[in-house]
Amino acid sequence: MNNWQAKKLGDITVINGGGTPPTSHAEYFNGDVPWFTPSEITSGTVSVLTNSQRQITEEATKFSKVAEQGTVLLSSRATIGNIGIVANRSTYNQGIKGITPKEDLNSWFLAYWLLANKKGLEKSSFGTTFKELSTTALKKFDITIPPISVQQKIVERLDSIRKLQELNQKEIEKAEELFDSLLSVKFYPNKAYKRLNFEDVVTFKRGPFGGSLKKEIFVSDGFRVYEQRNAIYDDFTNCRYFITEEKYKEMIGFAVKTGDLIVSCSGTIGKVALVPNKVSPGIINQALLKITPKIDIVLSEYLKYLIQSRDMQIKMFGNARGSSIKNIVSIKEIKKLVLSLPSIKEQQQIVKELDFVANIHETKILLKKSISQIYENSLIKAMKGEMV
Question: Which residues contact residue 157 at a Cβ distance below 8 angstroms, ignoring those fewer than 6 apart?
Fold first, then answer.
């Protein structure tokens, strides 16, 4: 790094804040000039920004700030430090800083440097309601840059990891599309299947309401209280609350066991998890619905996939009510839903096919985590001069 030069970011770039055209003039948002907001800049990578959710007219650009091709956009309000580069002439709102490099500074090198220094950017932000990084603070950042030829080499190496990351993300999305499509096909009503009411093949139990789970019954360790987060993340290892053995015995009807399903029915509705083998003893709270299948009629694994299907989500949770927090109205309607069930042997085959696609998706998710770690480590090494 002997030939790397230390500079102030404000000395080697031009930094501008964006703006929003008056929303009272609807005609301003009926143009063809991209207008970006912080929510459109992906975290954890450098986004190539092409199409925005809203476009403004040429006249409306006077209320924003024009970013020419290659300008680096930095989210600077609320969410600090997400980075993008505009692919075409664009504009952006006041939650973004546009950074244009001067001579001897590669736009992509600058973008990667900002991404590598995300934590420092966050620390320099201020605000009570939401954090904001000012232009003044941004200009004061020290940046050490190598010759332009070295910058290009660093960019090429980091680009290869970023493109691998993007490719893996596309494969994740394809796996999700395939899984959703397969769910729709496998659970499309079939006249050849046996038709039964939901309540004929399972038993339902909604978590306890009211004073049953008052704060005084909780202890630091003991029998677990499973809640919505366990259904959302399909994770039974982490719990925030515990109850005494005495209270657990009193509420044994709300206890979960292997093969049960727990379904979130308040707030984030419709998430379903299968209680695994060797689950730690515990009860459900009021945000969960426990479903216990009659295994001679329906497999737990089959039922989990069935509840995840789009048609079943609508039937079970389409009538949820609430303005700020949604809640299922009653399980009475759910009990009367008619299921079209194949034989146990056919259920096993359907589960096998869906498991195969689900495992592909899970593998891609794990790969995403590994690539992200490599990306993060490489960014740090690159800015220390350890990649060339």
Answer: 378, 382, 387
